[in-house]
Amino acid sequence: MRIIVTSLFVEDQDKALQFYTETLGFVKKQDVPAGEFRWITLVSPDDQDGTELVLEPNDNPAAKEYQTKIFDQGIPATMFGVVDVREAFQRLSKHGVRFTMEPTEMGEVTIAVFDDTCGNLIQLAQK
Predict the structure, then answer these.
(1) Which of 18, 25, 34, 93 is 20 to 30 A removed from 54 (C-alpha atoms)?
(2) Whole-angstrom Cα distance, residue 78 to residue 62?
(3) Whose CA is closest to 35, among 59, 52, 19?
(4) How far, in Å, are 5, 26, 52, 79, 86 from residue 18 at the CA level?
(5) Structural domain boundaries enclosing 51
(6) How many structural domains does the chain have?
(7) What InterPro entries would the database entry show (predicted)?
């Protein structure tokens, strides 16, 4: 068994698609109509046959409440692995990404947390 798809609630699918592809560098894999929304998935440019990230609309009140509450508590919605957190921090900061936690060593892992502009905090991790 392996994870093939995971979801991330977003406030605006178009804005999220732009941020996750143009700013973060993910690759759009699927973008198909799904009722009033779209089924949008992204993959890592380094593993285009790997796990897909669904940009899930938070139209459901329970999803919106969950997203808002974990954001307000400073809890990242998900984590992305990077080779060098400090390099990613510098590169993304130059693109205007707002970090809520600068690169911080925590044992064998270095992490940083940023606001994805779509209602989520995202954690970067370097082992």
Answers:
(1) 93
(2) 18
(3) 59
(4) 20, 10, 16, 19, 23
(5) 5-126
(6) 1
(7) Glyas_Bleomycin-R_OHBP_Dase (IPR029068), Glyas_Fos-R_dOase_dom (IPR004360), VOC_core (IPR037523)
CA 4 vs CA 12, 31, 51, 63, 79: distances in Å = 23, 17, 5, 21, 16
pLDDT single digits (tens) 1-38 = 999 999 999 999 999 999 999 999 999 999 999 999 99
Token output for 80 = 């992305």
- Sign for the CA dihedral angle at 71, 14, 50, 116 comes to negative
Angle (CA) 71 79 30, round 5°: 100
Q: What is the pLDDT of residues 66-99, one digit of tens each?
A: 999 999 999 999 999 999 999 999 999 999 999 9
CA nearest to 9, candidates 83, 80, 76, 64? 64
Could you identify the residue written with the tokens 């089924």? 39
Task: Kindly report the pTM of this predicted structure.
Answer: 0.95
Q: Which domain CATH number covers 81?
A: 3.10.180.10
